[in-house]
Amino acid sequence: MPESRGRDRKAAPYIPPKSSKATEPNPTWWAPVFITLLVLGLLWIVVYYISASQYPIGSIGVWNLAIGFALLMGGFIMTMRWR
Questions:
Q1: 45-70: per-residue pLDDT in tens?
Q2: What is the largest CA-CA distance in the chain?
Q3: Considering just the CA atoms, what is the radius of gyration of the chain in Å?
Q4: What ranges do the domains of the chain cover?
Q5: How far is residue 13's CA from residue 8's CA, in Å, rounded to a whole number?
Q6: Distant-in-sequence, close-in-space partners of 73: CB < 8 Å, separation ≥ 6
Q7: CA 35, CA 23: separation in Å to the nearest integer?
Q8: Residue 2: what are its φ and ψ, rounded to 5°?
């Protein structure tokens, strides 16, 4: 059975290139906005279910769920960019 050659001891180890863009911290308003979006989306959906579809906006019906989930998704997307 053939033997492996092994690695070349003279080769320099791989060093990944440094990224040109430094990670900057988020603005001070970032965390309060995404927390507000998450809470507001949750409250929107809870109020819709508790009020038997009359509130927050009774005339749009189940679209209240879409608004609530959109608020929640906006908050979740902001959490992914939080540093």
A1: 999 999 988 888 889 989 999 999 99
A2: 79
A3: 25
A4: 41-80
A5: 11
A6: 41
A7: 22
A8: -70, 150
Position 4, amino acid: S
pLDDT in tens, 21-39: 767 888 999 999 999 999 9
Q: Supply the DSSP symbol for 13.
A: P
pLDDT value of position 38? 97
**What are 58's two structure tokens?**
């009774």
Instruction: Write 73-79 long-range contacts (CB < 8 A, 24+).
Output: 73/41, 74/34, 74/37, 74/41, 75/34, 75/35, 75/36, 75/37, 75/38, 75/41, 76/38, 78/30, 78/33, 78/34, 78/37, 79/34
